[in-house]
Amino acid sequence: MPRKIKGNIPKCALKYFPRECINLKVNKLSGIKEKSFSDLMKEVITPGLCPVCGTCIAVCPYNALILREESFKRSELHELEITRDIYKSIEDLCEQCGFCYYNCPEIMFSLEKAEEEEFGTVAKDELGHVQKAYMAQAADKKILKNAQCGGVATALLKYTMENELVDAAVGVTSTEHPGWKPKPTVITEPKDLHKFQKTKYTPAATVIGVTSALYERVRSKIAVVATPCQVRGIWTTNISPKGYSKIFQSIKLIIGLFCYGTYSYNDLFVKFLTKKHGITPLSVNKIDLDTEKMRVYVNNELKLEVHRHQLHKYLRKSCSDCRDFTNRLADVSLGGVGSPEKWTTVLIRTERGKKIFENAVKEGYVKAKPLSDRGLEKVKGLARLKLKEGITD
Ligand SMILES: Cc1cc2nc3c(=O)[nH]c(=O)nc-3n(C[C@H](O)[C@H](O)[C@H](O)COP(=O)(O)OP(=O)(O)OC[C@H]3O[C@@H](n4cnc5c(N)ncnc54)[C@H](O)[C@@H]3O)c2cc1C
Predict the structure, then answer these.
(1) Whose C-alpha lies nearest to ligand 1, atom 45?
(2) 4 occurs within a structural domain
(3) Are 5 and 95 in contact (CB under 8 A)?
(4) For atom 33 of ligand 1, which residue has the closest CA?
């Protein structure tokens, strides 16, 4: 018998999933109810394996899981530390449907299955399937000026929105206070896309933005910018037998970012930058992290330069186990390594990625040149290292 919904479902949950829809999901899951949130807690969250991609929160039909701002505000708490009080309030709303568990990439994701479905074969190469490699740059001067690298992520979003290939873009903005906390955000007007720009080196629950685009903003064609763990979350909704595939199906472009790991906000911004170096998050206007150094800019001037070794102890545990540097399941993958300053390295993977990128170049949104052999070797070197050893310094 499918579970009956209790009377205390918050209105916000119904906004996301109309009642018939909740019943449908519970029906679908009624055969496999042996795993639920408490198992996710035991197997993923408590051992520190959760990358905070946001997929569990995005698929929860009861809105029992929410990204709690208050746990960010208390600086002694880490991103996904769930206190007894929080756990209790989740349990009160949880209907044990298991959706969070069966959509979690740490449990249900398989690279082989996903690559076979997307490309027909599992790539042996350290970069995954790549059709072409470029160094590229946004043609729009404002986008370029405000960019982390060459502003290609933003220029591609602008192209897809202005040409009505998508009706919403999901990415990450920074919170105003205390600054630099990644906030999953939906943008529907190209003029607002600059708000996404610049890399936040702390984890972002981007997948929440997809359900928010679907149900709060009533959009159906979405472009998303995401790190490898977030892309794995999106793909899990497609390949898990109990996946909430509407998330995957609504996405018309995945712009994947290279990633060599994230740090807890509390460690990077509170302990390291504020307490150790007297740099408050609000004063920072850019952070650059390459293979050797982290550079922090205040008022557009270099304020701090430290070797990456010094940050290693702050690396999140879930990142040290990740083996994907170049985001193997994106349509196009972007990074800084391999290209000169103010340029973005671009790996074209899928046919849809190729078409969008080439048309964005043709229509004058993006400037592109073939990536040099030396540049490509640098990308391969890091991809090989992460594939072999996870993240080491
Ligand atoms: C956590 C992290 C680590 C990275 N590490 C490396 C690395 O080691 N080597 C390398 O070559 N490149 C790395 N990158 C990619 C690089 O920093 C740039 O994001 C990429 O080159 C695109 O630059 P751009 O100028 O085209 O993007 P812009 O046009 O400036 O746009 C930046 C985009 O990044 C998104 N974004 C910012 N922070 C996050 C986040 N935490 N999670 C998800 N999306 C986010 C924004 O939504 C925006 O769409 C990393 C990115 C992230 C997010």
Answers:
(1) 172
(2) no
(3) yes
(4) 197
Q: What is the CATH number of the domain that holds 284?
A: 3.10.450
Q: Does 365 map to a domain?
A: yes
Q: 153 CA distance to ligand 1 centroid (A)?
A: 8
Task: Give the number of domains in the chain.
Answer: 3
pLDDT digits (tens, 9 = 90+) for 126-154: 999 999 999 999 999 999 999 999 999 99
229 shares a domain with 308: no
Q: Which residues contact 175 (CB under 8 A, 6 or more apart)?
A: 181, 182, 183
Expressed in angstroms and rounded, the spacing between residue 75 Cα and the centre of ligand 1 is: 25
Residues 299, 292: Cα–Cα separation, whole Å: 23
Q: Indicate whether 71 pLDDT > 90.
A: no
**Is 227 a member of any domain?**
yes
Same domain for 200 and 259: yes
Counting from 1 in the atom list of ligand 1, the atom nearest the Cα of 155 is 29
Measured from the Cα of 202, ligand 1's closest atom is: 41
Q: Do 297 and 189 belong together in one domain?
A: no
pLDDT tens digits, 335-366? 999 999 999 999 999 999 999 999 999 999 99
Same domain (yes/no): 289, 320: no
Atom 3 of ligand 1, residue of closest alpha carbon: 259
Q: Does residue 1 fall inside a structural domain?
A: no
Q: Which atom of ligand 1 is nearest to the CA of 262?
A: 1
Same domain, 248 and 144: yes
330 and 196 in a common domain: yes
With a Cβ cut-off of 6 Å, ligand 1 is lined by: 147-154, 171-172, 182, 196-201, 204, 206, 225-227, 257-260, 262, 334-337, 344
The full 3-state SS of 81-98, as one line of letters, equals CCCHHHHHHHHHHCCCCC
Ligand 1 atom nearest to CA at 379? 11
Confidence of residue 290 (pLDDT cuts 50, 70, 90): confident
Quick one: 82 and 196 in the same domain? no
Closest ligand 1 atom, residue 227 Cα? 43
* Residue labelled with tokens 């004063």: 283
Query: Which among 254, 281, 314 is the end of a domain?
Result: 314
Of the candidates 100, 95, 99, 97, the one whose C-alpha atom is nearest the C-alpha of residue 82 is 100
Write the burial class of residue 31 (CB in 10 Å: 0-12 exposed, 13-18 middle, 19+ buried). exposed
* pTM value surpassing 0.85: yes
Find tokens 């509407």 and name the residue.
246
Boundaries of domain holding 90: 11-108
How many angstroms separate the alpha carbon of residue 206 from the centre of ligand 1?
13
